Amino acid sequence: MTYYRYFSDKEELLQFYMNYLFSLFMEQEAVSHAPFGSREHVRDTLLFFRDYGDFARCIYRSGNDGIMLRMVNRYMAMQPGFETASAARRYAFYYYAGAIYNCYIEWALEDFATPVEELTGIICAFPRP
User: Fold this and answer.
1) Per-position b or e across 77-88, b if 16+ CB within 10 A of its CB
2) Phi, psi at residue 82, to the nearest 5°?
3) What's the chain look like in SS3?
4) Is-contact 56 69, C-beta < 8 A?
5) What confidence tens digit (pLDDT) does each residue in 70-89 have?
6) What pLDDT digit, counting tens, does each position of 110-119 carry?
7) Among 93, 65, 91, 98, which residue's Cα sits nearest to residue 78?
8) Is the Cβ–Cβ distance between 56 and 25 less than 8 Å?
């Protein structure tokens, strides 16, 4: 028996909500037009997900943060040229996704103490795929 009326378990519920956040993010991205990896794109992404810090901390502390990392990987796979890229290039996208995810989750766990502009600068200094 489940405690969730419409979901078979906790992971399915969390995945549903993560998909919802992803769709909201993609709507924002559609109107932004900031190039992938640009300073504006990184800042806007951090600002969007800062609003969902409670959810990020919850799934991290419950050991379900793989749900969020899979969403970041899914986003990377949507970037132009990913489908036809060499294995090395595809894994560079995943490498970048992991770096961004880890910076974000630590920022959330620290209750967003580092100013967004400072973290944006740090992330933009990373090599991008």
Assistant:
1) eeeeeeeebeee
2) -60, -45
3) CCCCCCCCCHHHHHHHHHHHHHHHHHHHHHHHCCCCCCHHHHHHHHHHHHCCHHHHHHHHHCCCCHHHHHHHHHHHHCCCCCCCCCHHHHHHHHHHHHHHHHHHHHHHHCCCCCCHHHHHHHHHCCCCC
4) no
5) 999 999 999 988 999 999 99
6) 999 999 999 9
7) 93
8) no
